Backbone:
């Protein structure tokens, strides 16, 4: 069914029928590395759309695939050629990029199939290839150019590129994309999530022109010893023995290497004089790649990230990750985040909070976020939407998760900011799930051994004792853990007497904690939904966490209130998860300032100096090793 080829070849996408029909064969897509720096014709703007809740544009009345479906972009006025019961030209328009839910009231709750169409003028370059680049289409999509099917894709948060060279021609062309956001039990994510199921072409769409031999994938990183920039470049369509050159023009340094039979060349470039990327000094270099007539420029930072005992080391030095969780939802205007302005607002607030790190929950975000994190000096936890109760026993679901993981890593492995790949969030403890996730952890280590693998685990509670002993932890480099003392369980002050038992001598990142507050609602710290109650959670949580010996970072839940169909309380939630430190209208809540103050202190002094060092009460249940004494976590650059 599906082959994952780790090293730069085509991604064979599993069979994707838009609806339940098994009749549509599989199709291939790829991910062009550094696509956002390629020469492209933007197809953003107004697209005609047709809402098709019964899939009538795709199937006939006996549910067979139509040969004369909407993808032909038929013209009703020609009459004699047959009955045409649709007309894109006379249909309304939607903005691309953009979710459909927030563009028309009638589409707010829509889940199903929707057809997009737009015309474009194009002049293909002789001998070149043309790719249709789709930044994200939630959740399944099929694309046709001039009536010919180009590709199918499943997964709503990853970029993909399909080769449309055979269907584009000079002059006027049209592209039709059918997008279906029906939630599926065997989808990734599955049926229920605590976020809005925004449908549509939610990110940029463009046509990318590449020469016949083109660089489709590369992996360039600082080696562990920090002596060389190493990795490889893959050139599609090139013969063994052909040359690839990688250069850093600012340092006047370059290296050439020959392609092997697999189309890949190993690269090693001395790193002397390269300034390491850090949050305080997020130095990026222009990196130029050249192969035959293809030339690609990227902007890259160089750093190492590794684990030593319970420490996370950035460029060999212990680092503490002061973070915040962020959803891919546009601040203020709402809907999916997909613009430079969205990224600047979200990451600007994270910087204002004092962060050196963000968790991009719960799926790969728009590439602008990781590009901007590179520039702003924010380390990133990047995640695939393996969320809650997936069908872990189903191999097809595993294949979908692996595909998304591969697409995410391939797009973002040129970003110094990304330090952690997260494979799951709050998944139930069953043997099938653990086997599934261990496979994903192995995939990450195979695909990208230069970064760390993590997952947000659940906690086991016995009275005031809390245990992090999920067997998946054995396969992770960094333990992520979500807990909601004071919100889903107990009271905020119960944090003061909680005893933590972390079953692993590995770095621990507290990937979520928090509680809802309606901005502007004030009351006693004991009164739920008030800013004071939320603040009280933070006041009790932060000292508690700082006492955990393995504590090396945190991303409280969450930066901004976000839409969720699970959150129904009138007058308070009104369809929003209110755990934001900032409301969806941009109002900062009290907890924002508490966390900001704490982060300022921690940034200046290290974690332990702001929290009285107490005897460590937690024991390591798994190994029974003595808990290490609380120590100062060095500031980056110290
Ligand atoms: C969680 C989930 C997150 C939810 C959050 C909440 O544990 O990981 O997606 O939004 O809790 O608010 O309940």
Residues:
């Amino acid at each position: 069914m599906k082959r994952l080829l780790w090293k730069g070849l085509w991604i064979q996408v599993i069979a994707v029928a838009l609806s339940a029909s098994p009749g549509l064969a599989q199709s291939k897509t790829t991910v062009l590395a550094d696509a956002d720096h390629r020469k492209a014709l933007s197809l953003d703007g107004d697209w005609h759309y047709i809402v098709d809740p019964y899939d009538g544009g795709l199937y006939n009345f006996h549910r067979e695939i139509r040969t004369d479906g909407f993808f032909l972009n038929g013209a009703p006025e020609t009459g004699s050629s047959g009955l045409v019961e649709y007309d894109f030209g006379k249909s309304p328009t939607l903005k691309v990029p953009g979710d459909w839910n927030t563009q028309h009231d009638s589409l707010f709750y829509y889940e199903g199939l929707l057809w997009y169409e737009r015309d474009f003028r194009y002049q293909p370059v002789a001998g070149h290839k043309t790719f249709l680049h789709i930044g994200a289409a939630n959740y399944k999509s099929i694309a046709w150019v001039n009536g010919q099917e180009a590709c199918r894709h499943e997964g709503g948060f990853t970029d993909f590129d399909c080769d449309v060279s055979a269907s584009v021609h000079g002059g006027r062309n049209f592209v039709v994309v059918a997008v279906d956001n029906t939630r599926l039990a065997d989808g990734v994510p599955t049926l229920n999530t605590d976020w809005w199921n925004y449908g549509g072409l939610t990110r940029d769409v463009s046509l990318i022109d590449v020469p016949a031999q083109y660089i489709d994938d590369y992996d360039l990183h600082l080696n562990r010893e920090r002596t060389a920039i190493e990795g490889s470049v893959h050139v599609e369509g090139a013969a063994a023995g052909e040359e690839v050159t990688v250069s850093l023009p600012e340092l006047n340094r370059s290296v050439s290497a020959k392609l092997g039979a697999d189309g890949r060349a190993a690269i090693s470039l001395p790193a002397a004089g390269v300034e390491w990327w850090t949050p305080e000094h997020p130095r990026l270099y222009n990196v130029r790649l050249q192969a035959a007539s293809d030339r690609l420029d990227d902007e890259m930072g160089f750093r190492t990230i590794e684990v030593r005992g319970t420490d996370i080391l950035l460029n060999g030095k212990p680092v503490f990750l002061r973070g915040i969780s962020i959803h891919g939802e546009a601040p203020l205007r709402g809907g999916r985040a997909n613009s430079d302005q969205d990224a600047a607002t979200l990451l600007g607030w994270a910087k204002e909070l004092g962060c050196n790190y963000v968790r991009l929950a719960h799926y790969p975000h728009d590439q602008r976020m990781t590009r901007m994190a590179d520039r702003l000096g924010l380390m990133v936890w990047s995640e695939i939407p393996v969320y809650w109760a997936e069908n872990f026993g189903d191999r097809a679901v595993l294949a979908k998760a692996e595909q998304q993981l591969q697409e995410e890593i391939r797009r973002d492995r040129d970003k110094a900011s990304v330090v952690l790949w997260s494979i799951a969030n709050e998944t139930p403890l069953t043997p099938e799930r653990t086997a599934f996730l261990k496979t994903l952890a192995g995939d990450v280590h195979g695909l990208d051994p230069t970064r760390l693998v993590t997952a947000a685990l659940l906690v086991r509670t016995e009275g005031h004792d809390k245990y992090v002993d999920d067997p998946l932890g054995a396969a992770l480099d960094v333990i992520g853990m979500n807990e909601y003392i004071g919100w889903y369980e107990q009271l905020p002050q119960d944090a003061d007497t909680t005893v933590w038992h972390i079953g692993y001598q590995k770095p621990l990142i507290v990937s979520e904690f928090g509680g809802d507050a309606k901005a502007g609602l004030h009351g006693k710290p004991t009164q739920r939904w008030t800013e004071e109650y939320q603040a009280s959670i933070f006041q009790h949580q932060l000292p508690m966490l700082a006492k955990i010996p393995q504590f090396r970072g945190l991303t409280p839940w969450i930066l901004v209130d976000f839409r969720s169909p699970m959150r129904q309380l009138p007058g308070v939630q009104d369809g929003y998860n209110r755990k934001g430190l900032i409301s969806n209208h941009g109002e900062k809540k009290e907890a924002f300032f508490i966390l900001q103050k704490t982060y300022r202190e921690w940034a200046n002094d290290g974690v332990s100096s702001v929290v009285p060092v107490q005897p460590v009460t937690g024991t390591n249940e798994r190994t029974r090793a003595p808990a290490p004494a609380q120590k100062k976590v060095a500031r980056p650059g110290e």
